[in-house]
Automatic annotation (TrEMBL):
Domain of life, source organism: Bacteria
XdhC Rossmann domain span: 77-216
Protein name stated in the entry: Sulfurylase large subunit, molybdopterin cytosine dinucleotide biosynthesis
Gene3D superfamilies in UniProt: NAD(P)-binding Rossmann-like Domain
Source species of the chain: Nitratireductor pacificus pht-3B
InterPro entries: MoCofactor_Util/Proc, XdhC_Rossmann_dom
PANTHER family found in the cross-reference section: ALDEHYDE OXIDOREDUCTASE MOLYBDENUM COFACTOR ASSEMBLY PROTEIN, MOLYBDENUM COFACTOR INSERTION CHAPERONE PAOD
Length: 239
């Protein structure tokens, strides 16, 4: 590997940014492609697929052979609200390979007894997210129903361009949420990224079922980055 390529890769890892080390197998030349860089033609399509899947591998394009070594930051899931849905979501998220953090200032909810082995913060989201900022490889799920807790975290998620932002509540609840967030400075385009009601439209009703729906939406968003795809919850949740 070219030492300059290694230096670039290490810098991108520290910044939690995705990159591919593209190596021309015939000559051994390599270069680093950051997610979002423009790569034309069939090679660009292969690069986009590799970023979405996270899988490294060899490709043959226009008579040339290349190896795409994919380096993705570990995906994070930040959950606002130590609620029943979060209790069901925590083990599922771990199994799916997400680094999970739960934030809730309400100490009666955010207790180690209810969330054993989970990175749990019984603090206001503002304080936690200042220490550990959100980024493009983080999903945010706001589950408290309390605007004082959820809204600042959602605004932080929009600013950080999290790959997924979802919020619990009915369409009526979300309409009021949108009004508040617009008053706080969020643009209509940014607000359109919020999935509310949260989760895939599978008719979920119990906390465990809603957790499955939420995780499904998060995975779909992770694997469709850069594509104009929205999961659309299409269901009502309690106001």
């Amino acid at each position: 590997m070219d030492p300059l390529s290694l230096k670039k890769l290490n810098a991108l890892r520290r910044e939690r940014r995705a990159a591919i080390l593209l190596t021309e197998l015939a000559g051994g030349r390599d270069r680093v492609i950051r997610e979002g860089d423009t790569v034309a033609g069939a090679l660009g399509e292969a690069v986009d697929r590799a970023f979405r899947s996270g899988r490294s591998g060899a490709v043959e394009i226009d008579g040339g052979n290349f190896f795409l070594n994919v380096h993705l930051p570990p995906p994070r899931l930040v959950v606002i609200g130590a609620v029943h849905i979060s209790q069901a979501l925590a083990p599922m998220a771990r199994l799916a390979g997400f680094d999970l953090t739960i934030i809730d200032p309400r100490t009666a909810f955010a207790s180690p007894e209810r969330f054993p082995g989970v990175a749990l913060h019984a603090e206001w989201p503002d304080a936690v997210l200042q220490r550990t900022p959100l980024d493009a490889y983080t999903a945010l799920a706001a589950l408290t129903h309390d605007p004082k807790i959820d809204d600042p975290a959602i605004l932080a998620g929009l600013d950080a361009e999290c790959f997924y932002i979802g919020a619990l509540g009915s369409r009526k609840t979300h309409a009021k949420r949108v009004e508040r967030l617009m008053a706080a400075g969020a643009s209509p385009e940014a607000l359109a990224r919020i999935e509310a009601p949260i989760g895939l439209n599978i008719g979920a009703s119990t906390p465990a079922e809603i957790a499955v729906a939420v995780l499904g939406s998060v995975i779909a968003a992770l694997r469709s980055r850069g594509l104009a795809v929205r999961t659309g919850a299409g269901k009502e949740q309690a106001a």
